[in-house]
Specification:
The structure is a homodimer.
Chain A lengths: L2 H10 L7 H14 L1 H17 L1 E2 L6 E2 L5 H4 L4 E8 L2 H10 L4 E5 L17 H8 L6 E4 L5 H15 L4 E4 L15 H9 L5
Parallel strand pairs in A: 3-4, 3-5, 5-6
Antiparallel strand pairs in A: 1-2
Helix pairs in contact in A: 1-2, 2-3
Organism (chains A, B): Rugamonas apoptosis
Family (chains A, B): Belongs to the RecR family.
Function (chains A, B): May play a role in DNA repair. It seems to be involved in an RecBC-independent recombinational process of DNA repair. It may act with RecF and RecO.
């Protein structure tokens, strides 16, 4: 195989979830059927690496010092929602139920993978949450073991500094039939039941 | 989401088998955890698009006029093996049983996808096979419907020009247990049985 092709296959393997066979298939596909796409991807990667960094306030990806969301005057600056990734933030935005600001951890605590408090920018979060304006921090990390542990850790840390901390409600999903919901979720929904 | 990030996500979707969620995950991963990899991929793509083209003889990807295999004096120039992709050629090379040359179609006949004889460079193959040195063409396209149709088409075309054409043997795979081999394969193995 030619040197450039080997280098390309090797580079494609850096993408998450791509093994040697997929990388080879992608390289052949781009060179055979979509050189324009390869060129576009090359430029997009270069441009993103050059231009994209972290928002000074919320830590998400942005090309400015402060991202559009943090810069938005219409937002309720007393609410700060903590999410693991920009994708999670997008999902919450799509619900149109939250008008506060965000903090994006860009990860979750995961001791087994060597990801500790420093790697998810908790110092930056503490400084952000203690700006004197934020009155409630809403923890919206995932409801996985690691996400729950991360929420617990952050909760303890912020409550020690006198901040009000809340967590997204757990319970039966909208449209969920009890017969098909797992027992853990029903147990939690029972414990957290609300008066109507 | 920032412009550069949107552009990158869109560009990653040009990769075969990558949908919007995967593209987003890849973009976030590269920017968060592997900017060096992103940079490397950008350069690899640019370099490959610039440098890689088709071998004048066998049609595979190469950076020279003629690829290393076609240029190899040790090869038996009377044998020409036709494969669909460079990956197939690599597989055959790994068997160490074939010392002839190759012709890489870079595809297969597939009328439903609009892929006709021109798209798989059959004119170039005919010219190559009629160089006066090649005495046998070994068809090693896949044993799928499309690969079989491609082999049949090429076989008729080359036999009409007086060339000897052969096809890889079909039969029970090495290590195969009859109980678990499909009936079509066993039927073919029965028809093609060899005296011992």
């Amino acid at each position: 195989m030619s040197k450039s092709l080997e280098f390309l296959t090797e580079a494609l393997r850096r993408l998450p979830g791509i093994g040697p066979k997929s990388a080879q298939r992608m390289a052949f596909h781009l060179l055979q059927h979509d050189r324009e796409g390869a060129d576009m991807l090359s430029r997009a990667l270069h441009q993103a690496v050059e231009a994209v960094h972290h928002c000074a306030l919320c830590n998400t990806f942005t090309e400015e010092d402060v991202c559009d969301t943090c810069d938005d005057e219409q937002r309720d600056r007393r609410l700060l929602c903590v999410v693991e990734t920009p994708a999670d933030q997008l999902m919450i935005e799509q619900t149109l139920t939250y008008k506060g600001l965000y903090f994006v951890l860009m990860g979750r605590l995961s001791p087994l993978d060597g990801i500790g408090p420093k790697d998810i920018h908790l110092e930056k979060l503490v400084a952000r949450a203690n700006d004197g304006v934020v009155s409630e921090v809403v923890l919206a990390t995932n409801f996985t073991n690691e996400g729950e542990a991360t929420a617990h850790y952050i909760s303890e840390m912020l409550k020690a500094r006198g901040l009000k901390v809340s967590r997204l409600a757990r319970g039966v999903p909208v449209g969920g039939e009890l017969e098909y919901v797992d027992a853990g979720t029903i147990a939690r929904a029972m414990l957290d039941r609300r008066s109507t």
